[in-house]
Amino acid sequence: MNKVLKQIIFMGSALNDLRAFPISARREAGFQLDRVQVGNEPDDWKPMTTVGPGVQEIRIRDAHGAFRVIYIAKFATAVYVLHCFQKKTQKTSKHDLDLAAKRMKELIELMTESNQAFSSVWDALEDSPAEAENMRIRTSLMTAIRDFIEVRQLSQAEAAQLFNVTQPRISELQRGKIDLFSVDRLINMLAQGGMHVEVSVKTAA
């Protein structure tokens, strides 16, 4: 059953801040926000009750450092991204917490006012429609593999053997490192696992 895709809305400078992340961290954040859009939890998150009830923080770490995306998804029609930043100290700075709380207050006061609303997070994060479409396809393929591993309750070693990749590659897949996987690689993994990929082409809206 297909899940309803919530709209994603960026408050204040949140979109510009997220697009300023290094590309690997930006795309990992995009993959996690795509999960949130369809009603799933991110892979690594914590509640941010100091900002507001229902507010959560996506936690990302890669070679460039630690990055955070603060959002709220409790509303029926949209995911609201409040603040995106690179975390440079062990404790989240008061400035970042205050800014997220300020945008949460603005959201409550002005629920319908935003000029940065998108049907898909990839339309917001990528530089062209072609790149956005590529990332949507990668997300669907990667999610299918992750779901297959979860349903079959495969260990990383078992999944690596089935998909003919190394165990570290399975770990990267399960941690949402989407920028490390091309469309071709993901299709090959699905085929190796005994799954068939069907392509549907239609005119863009």
Labels describing this entry:
205 residues; 434 Repressor (Amino-terminal Domain); alpha+beta; 2 domains; globular; YaeB-like fold; 6-stranded mixed sheet
Would you mind describing this structure in some detail?
There is one protein chain. The chain has two domains: 119 residues, RelE-like (YaeB-like fold); 64 residues, lambda repressor-like DNA-binding domains (434 Repressor (Amino-terminal Domain), Orthogonal Bundle), CATH 1.10.260. The chain is built from eight helices and six strands. Helix 5 packs parallel to helix 8. The longest helix is centred in the last third of the chain and has 24 residues. The relative contact order is 0.15. The mean pLDDT is 91. GO terms for molecular function: DNA binding. Pfam families: Gp49, HTH_37. This is XRE family transcriptional regulator.
Q: Topology of this protein?
A:
Elements: E1 7-10, H1 14-19, H2 23-37, E2 45-47, E3 55-62, E4 65-72, E5 78-87, H3 94-109, E6 117-118, H4 121-125, H5 129-152, H6 156-163, H7 167-174, H8 183-192
Parallel strand pairs: 1-5
Antiparallel strand pairs: 1-6, 2-3, 3-4, 4-5
Helix pairs in contact: 5-8, 6-7
Query: What value does the Rg take, in angstroms?
Result: 17 Å
The CATH architecture term of the largest domain is 2-Layer Sandwich
Q: Flag low-confidence runs.
A: none
CATH superfamily of the largest domain: RelE-like
Looking across the biggest beta sheet, what order are the strands in? 2-3-4-5-1-6
Pfam families: Gp49 (PF05973), HTH_37 (PF13744)
GO molecular function: DNA binding
InterPro entries: Cro/C1-type_HTH, HigA2-like_HTH, HigB-like, Lambda_DNA-bd_dom_sf
Domain HigA2-like helix-turn-helix: 125-202
